[in-house]
Specification:
By secondary structure, the chain is of the alpha/beta class. Helices cover 41% and strands 22% of the residues. The chain contains 13 helices and 15 strands. A five-stranded mixed sheet has the order 5-4-3-6-10, with helices on both faces. It has a five-stranded mixed sheet with strand order 13-12-11-14-15, sandwiched between helices. Helix 1 crosses helix 3.
Length: 375
């Protein structure tokens, strides 16, 4: 009997989850619409939407136009009934982002705050967070948690951030971090977080490799609505894929790594450490900028073509550099296509959709999705 009871409860939970996700997908919908689209009985749908209303997750917003019979109640999600925070920690900055159940960005702020593995640093980050929430007028009881993005290996089995060159950290346990915050904490690698933002918000299921071109080069594999972590949570660490045997020394101690050729530093070092200034100079036709760009995109094309040959997925260019590539994607695609064995035109190379705060957004959306899975 207990097994039957548990099975019935699980079926009910799955139905409620499907119904909520459908309402979330639609701007306004009715119970009969839900029943028809999800192939559920109208009483089942009505009971579930009633429970979701009681939970404060959906709300009635008047009535829909009649199609001949009684007007149906208009239902939509109560998007601001729950909120999530994304916290992106980098070497010199923190990014704070607030999102709701629809995944809408309600506020974003980037603050100069150099990382330090100390109590003072994390106390300071929590202070910045509370000030950010106050400015955002976010009620604390609505906060589901904080998604925290780190550059480095985020080992979910060891529950620790390991091997973060950017932060000069060998090991930083989740417990050491979460004790400074009064909300549940969820941890992601920065490239994984950027990929998650791209994938989970897509209209249709997507499979792609996300190449993060920031001050370090990383990547993430997104397949069938989930991140692929790998056996040791190192899937996507393409920054240390060899591009040039015995090439430029890399910070990892090897030589010829992709990171040495395609990090954002390769571009911003010529423009006074400001990446935006590099692209301004490139647009102005400055020869030294054009030369650097040609070399950069040559190596980038090698890496992108190699990744596509391995995964046969779209390659999404993200990170700091990715946010500037909209006007340059055709030339990059051509270089990739010239290297492609199968005469493809390079359209599998995409520019990221989220150009500001992508890692913070992905981390926040991870919190939202974790909550939705439990509805």
């Amino acid at each position: 009997m207990a097994k039957v009871k548990n099975t019935n409860m699980e079926v009910k939970r799955k139905n409620r989850n499907r119904i909520y996700r459908y309402v979330r997908k639609c701007k306004v919908v009715s119970n009969p619409d839900i029943a028809y689209e999800l192939k559920l009985s109208l009483p089942t749908v009505t009971q579930n939407t009633k429970e979701l209303i009681e939970m404060g997750l959906i709300v009635e917003r008047g009535e829909l136009e009649s199609t001949g019979g009684r007007k149906a109640k208009a239902l939509s999600i109560e998007e601001n009934s729950r909120l999530a925070v994304g916290l992106d920690i980098t070497r010199n900055h923190i990014g704070l982002l607030l999102t709701n159940l629809k995944g809408e960005i309600l506020n974003y702020e980037r603050i100069y705050d150099p990382f330090d593995k100390s109590e003072a640093y994390f106390h300071g980050v929590n202070t910045q967070l509370e000030e950010f929430l106050e400015k955002s007028r976010a009620e604390k009881e609505r906060i589901l948690g904080i998604g925290i993005s780190f550059p480095g290996i985020v080992d979910l089995r060891k529950e620790a951030i390991t091997n973060s060159h950017a932060l000069d950290v060998k090991t930083l346990s989740f417990r050491e971090v979460e004790r400074y915050f009064p909300y549940p904490c969820f941890f992601l690698n920065d490239a994984n977080a950027g990929a998650y933002a791209e994938g989970i918000q897509a209209e249709e299921k997507r499979c792609f490799f996300y190449l993060s071109l920031s001050n370090t080069v990383g990547g993430a594999l997104y397949s069938d609505d989930r991140l692929v972590y790998g056996d040791e949570f190192r899937c996507g660490e393409v920054g240390h894929m060899t591009i040039v045997p015995d090439g430029i020394p890399c910070y990892c101690g090897k030589a010829g790594c992709l990171d040495s050729y395609c990090s954002a530093k390769r571009l911003n070092e010529i423009a006074g450490e400001k990446l935006g200034d590099f692209f301004v100079g490139l647009e102005q036709g400055r020869q030294e900028y054009i030369g650097v760009w040609e070399r950069y995109t040559d190596y980038l094309a090698i890496a992108v073509n190699n990744l596509h040959m391995v995964f046969d997925y779209d390659i999404v260019l993200g990170g700091y550099v990715g946010s500037y590539l909209e006007d340059h994607i055709l030339e990059i695609r051509k270089k990739v296509a010239d290297r492609n064995t199968f005469s493809e035109d390079g359209r599998f190379v995409k520019v990221c959709n989220y150009k500001t705060g992508a890692a913070a957004l992905g981390a926040a959306l991870y919190v939202i999705e974790t909550f939705i899975e439990q509805i």
